[in-house]
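Morning. Coffee machine broken again, so started the prediction first thing and wrote up yesterday's gels while waiting. Chain of 183 residues, entered below exactly as on the submission form.
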Amino acid sequence: MVVDPIPFRLKDGREAVLRCPSPEDAEAFLENYRVCVGETPYLNLTPEEADRFTLEEERRFIEGFGSSPDKLLLCCIVDGVLAGSCDIVFQTNLKTRHRGGVGIAIRRRFWGLGIGTAMFHAVIELARSREGVAQLELEFIEGNARARALYEKMGFRVCAVLPDAIRLSDGTLLNEYKMIRKL
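Came back before lunch.
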């Protein structure tokens, strides 16, 4: 799925734009994800796992979102830099097509500027415009208070916990929380 670019202003006054990436953005997209997983333990991959993705795989990943009517991938560009990304995947099976799953990752130097809020406004608006979609879902890892605060601000509520779902490299086990936002 492809949508028109969405310009907005960051809290610090700079201009930013949410847009769908193109295959030409694959290198920047890979770099962004590698930076994000290195900055926080709250994403599902480690930096070593993120390093396994090839440029060609990333191009295909981006193309898959662009060609699908059931998935949207957005990136945020600030001063020519890919600051973060967000995706929404709508379920297509008869029994689950009322659901959409959301994922988000933002580089640390861009935290607190309103990018996450802008991304959520975009995906929530898209979900509302899609016939039959009644709820959005996401997960976060125990300890990620910043993300949880953003999700709650955007109307998501914890509905389930999966104990010890995440194992950090030092062996620490963390819970994973499922959140839902009704539309």
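The longest helix spans residues 115-129. Going to sketch it on the whiteboard this afternoon.
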